[in-house]
C-alpha cells in the first residue's frame, strides 16, 4: 500500500460517496496509489466475513478494484478488543491493510464511543492501535486517520505520538478539529509538525481542490503523501494532474489539456459499475450520479445541474448530456 520511499495519492474514504462503484471508476483514472474504504462501524458485535464482503466487495478480488487499485479496509470503534477481533476477521476475509478511523465527526457515531471522540483520550488511541496491530499478521499494515483534535488543535501531537507508539505504520491527518466540521480552511501547518515529530509517514489531507492547493499543502507540510476526498470527485482529473506533479504519471498522460471535460464516459462507467457489477437499482444509480454532479456543480466543475436534477431516468440524463455538452465544464487550476 503506502511505500514510504515513493509519493502517494490516496482516495479518501467518504461514507455514501466513495463506495465500491465510485472506487472502481476513480481507480480507472490510473493515478491513485490506493483507496480507503468507507468506515465499517464496530459497535457491539463482531462482523462476519460476509459483512466485510458486502462492505468492501473488492476483498473478493484480492483487495483490488476491477482495474487493480488496492483498497484498504477502514474500521471505526472504541472497544480495543472488539476492534482487534474485527481486524482479525477482516484479514481472514482478505484485507491487505487496515485503517482506523479517529476522525468521524457525526454525533451518532461520537455518542457511541467512535470516531473523533477518541481524540479526547490519546491513551485510548494508543491502546486501540496496539490491539489491532498485535491482532493481525505483521505483513498487514495498520494505519490511523485522525483529525487535529476534538475542539482544539493542541492535542494533535500527543494523539499522533500515541498512534505511532501503538504501532501505526502511517498516519493520515485531516487538517481540522471535530468542532471545525468541514468549514474551510483546512489547517496544514500542524500536519507538518506531526510529520517532523512522529518519524512515521504522514499523509496530508483536507481541502486539496486544485493543483495550486496541492502545491501549497506540499510546501506547508513537507509531506510526500496526500489524500484527496471531495476535490477528487469535483474534478475527476485532479488526481491525474497531481500524479503528474509528483512524477507518478508521465507529463503527457492527460491529453488534450482542454478546459472542456466530458463527464459522460465517467458517468457511464459509474452506471456500469453500480448497475451491472453491484446490482444497484437504476433509481439508486441515477441518485448516485446526481449526487456526484451536485458536488461537482458546487465547485464549478459541472454547470448543468439545474438542467438534469429533475430528470427521472438514466436515459434522460445521458440524452441531456449528449444534447448540451457545454454544460459540463471543468476549469483546470
Ligand atoms: C460525505 C463524507 C463522508 C466521509 N466519510 C468518511 C469515512 O467513512 N471515513 C473517514 O475516515 N473519513 C470520512 N470522511 C472524511 C474524508 O475522508 C476527508 O478526511 C475529508 O473530506 C477532508 O478531505 P477533502 O477536503 O479532500 O474532502 C468523509 C467526508 C465526507 C465529506
Q: Architecture of the largest domain in CATH?
A: Alpha-Beta Barrel
Structural class: alpha/beta
Radius of gyration over all CA atoms, rounded: 19 Å
CATH class identity of the largest domain: Alpha Beta
Number of helical runs?
14
Ligands present? flavin mononucleotide
- Spans where pLDDT lies below 50 across 5 or more residues: none
Topology pattern, helix = H, strand = E: EHEHEHEHHEHEHEHEHHHHHH
Kindly report the CATH topology of the largest domain.
TIM Barrel
Spatial order of strands in the largest sheet? 1-2-3-4-5-6-7-8
What share of residues is helical? 40-55%
Shape: globular
The largest β sheet comes out as: 8 strands, parallel, barrel
Considering the protein shown, what is the CATH homologous superfamily of the largest domain? Aldolase class I
Oligomer type: single chain
* Structure summary, number of beta strands: 8
Key structural traits:
TIM Barrel, 333 residues, 2 domains, 8-stranded parallel β-barrel, alpha/beta, binds flavin mononucleotide
Description:
Strands 1-2-3-4-5-6-7-8 form an eight-stranded parallel β-barrel, surrounded by seven helices. It has 14 helices and eight strands. The longest helix is centred in the last third of the chain and has 17 residues, at 282-298. It is of the alpha/beta class. It has two domains: 8-245, Aldolase class I (TIM Barrel), CATH 3.20.20; 264-327, no CATH class.
